[in-house]
Amino acid sequence: MTDKLLLEIVNHTAILTINNPGANTWDADNLTALRDRVAELNSNDEIYSLVITGQGEKFFSAGADLKLFASGDKQVARDMADKFGAAFEALANFRGVSIAAINGYAMGGGLECAMACDIRIAEAQAVMALPEATVGLLPAGLGTQHLAWLVGEGWAKRMILCGERVDAATAERIGLVEEVVAKGEALSSAMALAAKVEGQSPTSVSACKQLIQAARSGSITDAYEAERTAFVNLFETQDQAEGVNAFLQKRKPQWKNA
Length: 258
Description:
Layout: E1 5-10, E2 13-18, H1 28-42, E3 49-54, E4 59-61, H2 74-92, E5 97-102, E6 105-107, H3 109-115, E7 119-123, E8 127-129, H4 143-151, H5 153-161, E9 166-167, H6 168-174, E10 179-181, H7 186-197, H8 202-214, H9 220-233, H10 238-248
Parallel strand pairs: 2-3, 3-5, 4-6, 5-7, 6-8, 7-10
Antiparallel strand pairs: 1-2, 8-9
């Protein structure tokens, strides 16, 4: 692991902090660490949610360190593209709820990281963009796919093809973020939302997340059957029986994530 990606666990929530001064850029070290951390959290039954944010007040993350690509080495490009893909695919497939607390600039791979999360909370001063084409590159951390899915093809083309930056208010209006909060409040707001996840059955949340994300591909009629099957499969879990009986007995459920 690396100090460029910090981990703290509070109750059932893991807090990951991108810590690579001065702009919290992504490199081979912290991308690999992100991939591995998510794998560890997936295997920890006590973790229900994940919050990721940036160290400091100015940057969530400015994306890739462009010095990596100055040589024009194609093998370096392939290696870094693979590392971005592995890290952000792992984040997108985290079994619990992931929340990006966008505390400042989220540019390029920084925004791609946030888009790999389930929910995004941005501070009012935050600015978001995918400016890769401005420097002769393209978003290779799932950005072309996630942005179009979140905001629609038109805004995705404005941001990627025209290099347009959006402020927090615009991001909320177009559906890029779910909430805008005052400066300094993204992390606390994300933690408050993560606390709500603790009231949900972890096994139900995982199944629901998979079904929601499956809507991005395949047919809706196939998804109907998958939804029913997932519902029935929950009856093989301890949490299903605990949730129903806790409600009937008027007590708080004690989840086992099993």
